[in-house]
Automatic annotation (TrEMBL):
Stretches with biased composition (Low complexity): 447-461
Residue span, M23ase beta-sheet core domain: 320-414
Keyword tRNA processing: no
Protein name: Putative M24/M37 family peptidase
Transmembrane segments: none
Organism: Megalodesulfovibrio gigas (strain ATCC 19364 / DSM 1382 / NCIMB 9332 / VKM B-1759)
């Protein structure tokens, strides 16, 4: 029995070695190679990467070279231990003084098979590029930029050649610039509510197709602001509502309070990340004109209010309120603040039923906690058009509208957008806006509508009952 078992084990080992040997010797497939980015132009600093894979035998060696004229430079010559099935290498051409003109990048990758008498299968790719070492030129056309903390600024500039990427960088936030024709670009950027005024330095840049980056300074006066601090007493009614509405979004064996806190933190953070993505779904040209219209009603929570959430005398959370709450009668009509396109209309976590309108150049307006939505994604809407009704879906207890303005997914104070003078001095004097109606007539109508909305900022009331302020919690 032992001899028989040994015989079979030996047979299996021989078969395994034979099968593996057959694979190693008879593997005729070459490795796959991908070189990125796919661009006709390169520069010394352009980050490039090569990805190679061979699922059958793994990889043994990679060589990368660049040739200009009669000169060839070795960028990479690397052997791999353990025959990895896939590798990724990154490189630039900064170490080599390559003049402008045609260059050829060649990549050769060999697998770990014993094909070709142990040399393995080799895949070779070569790609021609044009070396471009000249940076584009930026000319700022807008003059002094006054930006209040929590608010936006607009810089208008020209670039000497088409930009592959351009805009303003503020810390880890990027605000794209959008071409307006003739090499002219417009870019909304933000002085974030939580930025340190002492270190706030927006950087304007433009990258050409080869990856050359030009950086330009522009005159800016950053005006610091202090925002309110508030205490929100969390009621059992709100906690129980959130526990029920968010059970699927925050699953697990949790108490109602635990689910409320997790929703307030985790769902809020997830929603805000999604809003950054929605902020990129924008028209490169402005769609709005004049000041934004304000919904009539009583102003409640304000933009950038820092809130401490207290339950039974104990603080359970802290968050910042990123919009303007307006309370009116229950299920009041919600008008569009300005002309635009619906880029989101649906349920979104703490915001409940929410509509986001795109106004172009990354500028968007949010209408949240709605009970009804009268538009769908892709619809074109006009200023003042009723798009829904107020409600208390999402993280809200009382009927109200959460109105917010965003620039490339970053929240900004709505108040400036209701101000015709601010629009004129900071936007109209720098950017050509579409004229939906006679400008003078529109400005007068906007001013009258917003003045009436402010006068109507009285406590909300339900039909047939005395006026009573609509409560809100968010």
């Amino acid at each position: 029995m032992k001899l028989t078992a040994l015989f079979f084990l030996t047979l299996l080992a021989v078969a395994a070695l034979g099968g593996g040997g057959w694979l190693l010797f008879h593997d005729r497939s070459k490795p796959e190679i991908v070189l990125e980015p796919l661009t006709a132009f390169v520069s010394p600093s352009l980050p490039m990467q090569v990805r190679a894979a061979d699922a059958d035998s793994g990889l043994r060696h990679m060589a990368v070279s660049v040739t200009t004229g009669n000169q060839t430079y070795t960028i990479l010559d690397k052997r791999y231990d353990g025959s990895p099935p896939a590798v990724e290498e990154r490189f630039t051409l900064e170490l080599f003084k390559i003049p402008d003109g045609e260059v050829v990048i060649e990549i050769a990758v060999s697998d770990a098979s014993f094909a070709r008498f142990g040399q393995g299968n080799t895949q070779v790719i070569s790609r021609k590029h044009l070396m471009d070492t000249i940076k584009p030129t930026i000319a700022v056309q807008s003059m002094q930029h006054y930006v209040r903390q929590g608010g936006p600024g607009l810089v208008v500039y020209s670039v000497s050649e088409p930009a592959a990427k351009t805009g303003v960088q503020v810390g880890n936030l990027f605000f794209p610039g959008y071409e307006q024709g003739g090499g002219k670009y417009a870019c909304f950027f933000v002085f974030p509510h939580n930025a340190d005024p002492k270190t706030y330095v927006p950087v304007l840049f433009a990258d050409d197709a080869a990856g050359n980056r030009a950086v330009a300074n522009f005159a800016i006066t950053a005006i610091p602001r202090t925002f309110r601090r508030d205490t929100i007493n969390v009621s059992d009614n709100l906690i129980n509502k959130i526990d029920s509405e968010f059970a699927a979004q925050v699953p697990g064996q949790l108490t109602a309070l635990e689910r409320y806190v997790r929703a307030n933190r985790e769902i809020r953070a997830s929603n805000d990340k999604l809003l950054l993505g929605i902020g990129l779904r924008t028209s490169p040209l402005p769609l709005w004109s004049g000041a934004f219209r304000r919904m009539p009603g009583a102003p409640m929570a304000r933009f950038a209010d820092h809130r401490a959430y207290v339950y039974n005398g104990q603080e359970v959370d802290q968050q910042t309120h990123m919009g303007q709450d307006i309370a009116s009668t229950a299920m009041a009509e919600v008008p569009a603040g300005n002309h635009g396109t619906v880029v989101f209309a649906g349920y979104l976590g703490i915001y409940g039923n929410m509509i986001m309108l795109d106004h172009g150049l990354g500028l968007q307006s949010m209408y949240a906690h709605l009970s009804e939505m009268h538009v769908r994604e892709g619809d074109q809407v006009a200023k003042g058009q009723v798009i829904g009704r107020t409600g208390f879906t999402g993280m809200a207890l009382g009927d109200h509208l959460h109105f917010a303005m965003y620039v490339s997914g970053v929240p900004v104070s709505p108040i400036e957008w209701w101000d015709s003078s601010w629009i004129k001095n900071n936007i109209k004097d720098r950017l050509v806006l579409p004229e939906k109606v006679d400008p003078a007539k529109e400005e007068a109508e906007d001013a009258a509508a917003n003045a009436a909305a402010e006068k109507a900022a009285s406590p909300a009331k339900k039909p047939g009952k005395p006026e009573k302020a609509a409560k809100k919690k968010q």
